[in-house]
Specification:
Two copies of one chain form a homodimer. By secondary structure, chain A is an alpha/beta fold. Chain A has helices at about 10-15, 20-35, 50-65, 75-90, 105-115, 130-140, 160-165, 190-200, 255-270, 275-280, 285-310, 335-345, 375-390, and strands at about 40, 100, 120-125, 145-150, 170-175, 205-210, 230-235, 250, 325-330, 350, 350-355, 365-370. Chain A has two domains: about 10-50 and about 285-390, Aspartate Aminotransferase, domain 1 (Alpha-Beta Complex); about 50-285, Type I PLP-dependent aspartate aminotransferase-like (Major domain) (Aspartate Aminotransferase, domain 2, 3-Layer(aba) Sandwich). In chain A, the strands form three sheets. Chain A has a seven-stranded mixed β-sheet with strand order 2-8-7-6-5-3-4, sandwiched between helices. In chain A, strands 9-12-11 form a three-stranded antiparallel β-sheet. Chain A has a two-stranded parallel sheet with strand order 1-10.
Chain lengths: ~400, ~400
């Protein structure tokens, strides 16, 4: 039987884009396979492996035979540890019953949007932003409405823009602090203003806090300090260096607990068991010490890369104070997609073109990730400098 | 700021039901906490832990520091191992490029339905069946159309019923072989007839093969032997005893590869890394030997439980030859929900009422899982017998 039948594809798939950087990464791998050396400044995960105390806890869980499903909402001990983390780190009291352990922050977003968005309902979010967010909305037949943001609001949605773009189809707004790709944060007063602005419109605020912990000279504020009606998405991937474990969490408002639990059961059954046991070690002092030294290393990298790129002529008007990204205006050097391709082919440096982060001036921006060693960053900057001298001067 | 805003919940949530058995399980745990002994015949996962060679491979992966993301479609070596599994076990050649490693079979189903179902598109499936299937369809704003099935087709959708229920909104049909909750299989000729029936209607067949390997006196046939245009959902959870690892796979038709990859990137980033490395040991002879001895143990349990329940007056008209479930007509003893509650409270035996599996005569059926030891099954049968004698005679 041959598959000559027509290929019926759901219409949503026309709106769901691939990660454009994957093509570039594929080409980078080809170049590497051909013997070229590539400096990777495109990668959205820490170069550090998972801290040893977490690994050790996973080993113990293997020995103890923890290979079955956990309850849908997660290991009670881990939900309590996360509630404790909010108490210790932010001074915020959270009922552990509101914490849902999810398969990555991706799982948490799918739950939040699944319980909130009806077909054609709209989700407001900042453009540029993490590309999957709008695809999650589209996946459930909702619609993301990107709000162009720039340096005047530190690339963040603010209450003014929110009220200007809110319409009767809007049910929620999503912000990220620190933001991918811009590395900027929302202050507590800004979170409170956004929360209030959404609240008076009977909407919900969703805050992506997955880069919390990775901040430099500033502490990230959780929206839970100002709005217990918000949904918080978080993850063990970034600060805790557990990307491959696929573990995150959602803090949902109390009145949504039952709905979130139903969805969690049906969509995922439960988050990975071993990862949950391992993550019990994530909040221990020994682990914290390791993570804080890594945070300091990310800070050193940012402190090197930010002035170095500005020196080369990239415009980064707002100081990025979190995550591990710099979002740079490269317009004086031409179109960002072409530039990214040239940097890869001619200078051996991989960076991500703005295309992956939205529709607002993507051709003018590149994202530089400092998820590689200082030595490699220095080498990358040397190569970029050499390329720009030859090419533009 | 108090959460006095109205609770806007997406309409889909009214159609997405919780696992009813969870309530019963919660009550069982209460009873256990109060000192009562409960025989668990409601649990849908193997009581066996993950085989040691898989555990050992996970230990090695921890030591080797495999804690970062894998490619979105999964570790190439694992995709190849799965293609090898189709060659060795079924004599079917599959391009490893068609194999996508997913976070559980749940992830695979979400991908398949995400690329196939537009809003209001319909998915035909057997009722009774795995409850999450219809919720996955609803999640993406599609609609599952349950087709009542009974002993006359071994509780399976057949080509005749499919053509009787297909309408212009239908884009796909989903069957499971072996089936949860009925444990029955589709023969190769039946799969071929279903495939042809769907094909001529320009639809797609999705086959849930997650209980493959757990069959008794019969080998399960893969739809890939008769239809390369089908979507196959499979899992390391059941036969391979890896439930908590959250690892499955999808074999997608070649012409959908690009769409599936986009969705995989966006929804999940990738499946859990450690689980993928561990699963590399799943197809090794040493592991196979362990799994086959467990299969034999499940068969012994079935061979005990099936006649024992029939003897007690439960009707099981078709011999279940796969998975680890018996779906029994309990109508002579009353409503299944009440009966399940009574069995738990008065006899200390937990079973799942039909309610969890669809809308076709759920009140007449109970699902018995033989995912506990022979001794416990014997004890369970003794208790049920005692309860029925006291209660009904």
């Amino acid at each position: 039987m041959s598959p000559e039948r027509p290929t019926h594809t759901a219409r949503r798939m026309a709106d769901i884009e691939p990660f454009h950087v994957m093509e570039l990464l594929g080409r980078a791998r080809e170049l590497e396979a051909a013997g070229h050396d590539i400096v990777h400044m495109e990668i959205g995960e820490p170069d550090f492996g998972t801290p040893e105390p977490i690994i050790e806890r996973a080993r113990q869980a293997l020995t103890d035979g923890h290979t079955h499903y956990t309850p849908a909402l997660g290991l009670p001990a881990l939900r309590e540890a996360i509630a404790g983390h909010y108490r210790d780190r932010y001074g915020v009291e959270i009922d552990p019953g509101r914490v849902v352990i999810t398969p990555g922050a991706s799982g948490a977003l799918l739950l939040a949007l699944g319980v909130l968005l009806d077909r054609d309902d709209e989700l407001l979010l900042a453009d540029p932003g993490y590309p999957c967010n709008r695809h999650f909305a589209r996946f459930v037949e909702g619609q993301a409405r990107g709000v162009p943001v720039d340096a005047t609001t530190r690339y963040q949605l603010d209450a003014e823009r929110l009220s200007a773009h809110w319409n009767e189809r809007c049910v929620a707004a999503l912000v990220a602090s620190p933001s991918n790709p811009t590395g900027t944060l929302l202050e507590r007063s800004e979170l409170a203003a956004l929360a209030e602005s959404v609240r008076v419109r009977s909407g919900r605020l969703i805050v992506d806090e997955i880069y919390h912990g990775l901040t430099y000279g500033i502490e990230a504020e959780t929206v839970l300090a100002v709005d217990h009606g918000a949904f918080v998405v978080n993850s063990f991937s970034k600060y805790f260096c557990m990307t491959g474990w696929r573990l995150g969490w959602l803090v949902a408002p109390e009145e949504y607990q039952r709905e979130v639990e139903k969805l969690m059961q049906n969509l995922f059954i439960a988050a990975p068991t071993l990862a949950q046991h391992a993550a019990l070690a994530a909040f221990e002092p020994e682990t914290r010490k390791i993570l804080e030294s890594r945070r300091a290393e990310f800070e050193r990298r940012r402190d090197f890369l930010l002035p170095a790129l500005r020196e080369l002529g990239f415009e980064i008007p707002v100081e990025p104070r979190g995550a591990f990204y710099l979002y740079a205006d490269c317009s004086r050097f031409g179109d960002s997609k072409q530039l990214a391709s040239d940097l890869l082919e001619k200078a051996g440096v991989a960076v991500t073109p703005g295309l992956d982060f939205g529709n607002y001036r993507p051709e003018q921006h590149l994202r530089f990730a400092y998820t590689t060693s200082m030595e490699r960053l220095e080498e990358g900057v040397r190569r970029i400098a050499g390329f720009l001298r030859v090419d533009n001067h």
